[in-house]
Amino acid sequence: MGKSIFIKGEHIIMSKSLKNIKGTQDILFDDNNIWQYLESHIHQFLNKYGFSQIRTPIFENTNLFSRSIGTQTDIVSKEMYSWTDQGGNNLTLKPEVTASVVRAYIQHNLGKKYPINKLYYIDTLFRRERPQKGRYRQFNQFGVEAIGSEHPEQDAEIIALAYNFYKSLNIENLTLKINSIGSEEVRNKYKLELKKYLIPYKDKLSTLSQKRLDTNPLRILDTKIDFEIEIIKNAPHIIDFLNKEDKDHFSKVLSLLDSLSIKYDIDHKLVRGLDYYCRTVFEIQSSKLGSQDALCGGGRYDYLVEELGGKPTPAIGFAAGIERLILSLNKKELSIFKRPNIYIINTEEKYLETSFEITESLRNNNLTVINDTLRRSLKSQMKDANRLKALYTIIIGEDEIKNNKVTIKDMDKGTQSYVSFDKINSYFLKKQ
After folding, report:
1. Where are the alpha helices (DSSP H) in 310-397?
2. pLDDT > 90: percent of the chain
3. Backbone angles phi, psi at 268, to 5 degrees
4. Angle value at C-alpha 412, between 410 and 418, nearest 5 degrees
5. Fewer Cβ close by (within 10 Å): the C or N end of the chain?
6. Side-chain half-sphere of 402: how many Cα atoms within 13 Å?
7. What SS3 state is found at 415?
8. Residue 293, C-beta contacts closer than 8 angstroms, at least 6 positions apart
9. Rounded Cα gap, residues 140 and 125, in angstroms
10. pLDDT tens, residue by residue, 265-299
């Protein structure tokens, strides 16, 4: 609110300049073309794989995320935007989507309706973390969730879908990292061994990792700190602790990826950041993004449906940041910008009704038509048509009205045609 002061009897309002909140961004005109292009591409690509879109509320009960993500994760302990409403309900803006999708799956009995549910989303999320390149406090993700199959072919399909999505956008320097973190029983055994290995280095670990050593030592493997990376170089690998069933599952996933000629690197330190993952975990990276190189990540979460009150149900999915995706795009190779079909140039106010009638008639034929409303000169309107890269201009002036013909200019070729008013639509229909 502005600060009020009085100067020589005058009441003056002094207001601070209003800006967007730190960690948020305004997406303006030209950038929106990229967003719309990507959203359209996501819908088309995922529909080819038989996935259906799901939309969940922007906020949920806080308990949903503390139960699913884990109370010891940074997201729950530090980063969530939470509040208590007038009714005493503890609510949180969504920091991730999988928990919401699983909640909807349980609430609407989707498991009874369909033996397998293949769902995708495009959503806006919120985390109060340190803003940096490609990482915001309000950010956007798309992702998929396949709920119902325990088999390795479902893992392979999800991973191939993610990998092929980025290939379809010609994103360079892709690397698929994959690992298995086993079943819950295997993971608990491994945590004990990992803790034994790390205890002698406790004093050298960061404060956060020292805390994780007691709560969830597996998370230390996800460190990005150089001296901690050096410490865990010789740590035991979880893959060596897998039981036969977990090994067979992982082996089949890799075999299926081989059959699709999808290259991968087994990364023994890859664990993912959320507590609900098990067995297969993966990440797709691009060196084009620098140190923050992850494009998407995901894996199996076979215990989450049961954890949130449903029947034991296997599931796998991934989430991908759209801001990161935009940073990795070679925008010059994409046909993102759609040029207006027609720019109507009206030279005098008295011809407004005529230009409006022509505009609406052309739009009814699914043409993109721009009509100037600033009453600018012919030269200024033509300059604007060039700026917008309109394919054609239609000029309506005194001569055109007198001769009952408009002047149509092909802006690429520079040629002009004279077309009677009643033939304008058919002229452009032939061009389609």
Report:
1. 322-328, 352-363, 378-387
2. 52
3. -70, -15
4. 10
5. N
6. 3
7. coil
8. 285, 286, 287
9. 6
10. 999 888 776 667 889 999 999 877 666 678 999 99
Q: How many CA atoms lie within 13 A of 83 on its CB side?
A: 6
Cα(405)–Cα(428) distance, rounded to whole angstroms? 15
pLDDT of 156: 96
CB 123 within 8 A of CB 141: yes
Q: How far apart are CA 42 and CA 121, in angstroms?
A: 9
Helical residues (DSSP H) of 218-299, grouped into ranges: 226-231, 244-259
Using the structure block, give the residue that is written with the tokens 């609110």.
Answer: 1
Q: How far is CA 124 from the centre of its chain?
A: 8
Q: Distance between CA 335 and CA 37 in Å, rounded?
A: 9
Angle between helices 152-168 and 244-259 (to 10 degrees): 40
Which of 365, 395, 364 shows the shortest CA–CA distance to 378?
395
Sole residue written with tokens 């498991």:
111
Q: How far apart are CA 156 and CA 140, in angstroms?
A: 25
Looking at per-residue pLDDT, the higher value among 312 and 20 belongs to 312
Residue with tokens 């390149």: 133
Q: What is the pLDDT of residue 68?
A: 64
Distance CA 264, CA 160 (A): 11
For residue 119 the two structure tokens come to 């769902």
Mean pLDDT of the chain: 86
Distance CA 430, CA 432 (A): 6
Q: Write the burial class of residue 416 (CB in 10 Å: 0-12 exposed, 13-18 middle, 19+ buried).
A: exposed
- Residue 370 and residue 340: Cα distance in Å, rounded? 7
Residue carrying the six token digits 């609430």: 107
Q: Which helix (H) or strand (E) holds 68?
A: helix 62-68
Give CA–CA dist 163/180, Å, rounded.
Answer: 18
pLDDT at 224 over 80: no
| pLDDT value of position 1 | 46
SS3 at position 141? strand
Query: What's the pLDDT band for 140 if we cut at 50, 70, 90?
Result: very high
Cα 284 to its chain centre, rounded Å, is 14
Residue type for position 64 = L
How many CB atoms lie under 10 A from the CB of residue 205? 21
Cβ atoms 329, 169 nearer than 8 A:
yes
Phi, psi of 212 (to 5 degrees): -70, -25
DSSP-derived 3-state class of residue 63: helix
Tens-digit pLDDT profile for residues 229-260? 888 888 888 888 899 999 999 999 999 999 99
